[in-house]
Amino acid sequence: MIEMRDVGFAYPREEALFQGISLELPRGSFHFLTGPSGSGKTTFLRLCIAELLPTQGRLTVFGQDAAGLGRDAIAGLRRRIGVVHQDTQFLDHLPVAENIALPMTVAGQPVDMQAIRDLLAWVQMGPQARTMPPALSGGERQRAALARAVILSPDVILADEPTGNLDWDMSLRLLQLLIELNRSGKTVLIATHDLNLIRAAKQQVSARVLRIAGGRLQAAGAEL
Ligand SMILES: Nc1ncnc2c1ncn2[C@@H]1O[C@H](COP(=O)(O)OP(=O)(O)OP(=O)(O)O)[C@@H](O)[C@H]1O
Fold first, then answer.
1. Which of 131, 153, 175 is the last residue of a domain?
2. Closest ligand 1 atom number to CA of residue 35
3. Taking every annotated instance into account, which residue ranges of this chain make up the domain ABC transporter (predicted)?
């Protein structure tokens, strides 16, 4: 689904953040991405959706070389990748249901109210459909963000520290939703600092753990 060959990346006028990254996220796989704060996890996710392009090497998304893709092609591939952003990024003046519908509106699709109701029920947020985002708890925000990320039924789900501010029970609930998505065939990548979350996931799914450190991406140690 997403493949990197000897990829390096540097922000403009900065030293290389990483180099020599080769990996493949096959269809239906489950990956975790760990690494110290500032090692480049968010940057790596932005590369995966071709929001940033490698400054070295080759990035292929759904079989297409990300370099030289036109705006329409990039918009098309982003519709196939759902992202749960670290800061959730809701429009605070729109109720939860409208926020979840936004990817449909942006994609020029008619808003499918039944799909939105089904998703709200799946994340156990039916009663909050009309709630404004600032009134949501941390766990509700993350669940709503996950619902929004999957409203277009993407093939790949990328989640950036989705359990960052959640207590353990809520972290496990969110993890369970991501595991369900993976069991339904979706490719899942979760960036997280939380090694307990990774351990909990590994009891249920066969997950690979990647670690970015010192500009390199490696398989994490056997202690996980
Ligand atoms: N737009 C940008 N321009 C220049 N440098 C940037 C930009 N965005 C991020 N950086 C730098 O790149 C490095 C990696 O940032 P990134 O957010 O990818 O790390 P991270 O591993 O996700 O961090 P955290 O775990 O704290 O969220 C940091 O040093 C950051 O300051």
1. 153
2. 21
3. 2-224
Same domain, 29 and 59: yes
149 and 97 in one domain?
yes
User: What residue numbers bound the domain in which 104 lies?
Assistant: 89-153
d(CA 213, CA 176): 28
pLDDT in tens, 168-179: 998 999 999 999
Where does the pLDDT of residue 136 fall: very low under 50, low under 70, confident under 90, or very high at 90 and above? very high
| Closest to 216 in 3D by CA, of 35, 11, 13, 46 | 35
Is 66 found in the same domain as 4? yes
Same domain for 183 and 76?
yes
- Give the residue among 200, 82, 81 at the shortest CA–CA distance from 146: 82
**206 Cβ below 6 A of ligand 1:** no
Helical segments of 11-87, H only: 41-48, 71-79
Q: Is the CB of 40 under 6 A from ligand 1?
A: yes
Question: For residue 25, what pLDDT is reported?
Answer: 95
Please give the share of the chain, as a percent, with pLDDT higher than 90. Answer: 80
